Give the backbone structure.
Amino acid sequence: MTDKIVVYSTCASAEEAERIARRLVEERLAACVNVLPGMVSYYRWQGAIEQSSEWLLLIKTSRDRVDEVRRSIESLHSYQVPEVIAVPIVEGSVNYMNWLDAELKSS
């Protein structure tokens, strides 16, 4: 097991996804954020089944930054309850894991 994680979050628009992704990378809270467009989500909200077009963020970071990542997402997000789900990176290529380490360090 590594100390690295992937945080999933969804956004209501391309602009919101880009704003959050850029901020996380600029602040070195994430080494990389992939923005996947064209996703459709189905969920229950306030008693009704909803369907929304969304953009998925795949945020590569470390466990010790997850609280800061969550706070940043919540402060920038349009949703009342933004998705912030972290999953561990169990294994990864040595070169990629070293790159993640380097990008997450403060300059």
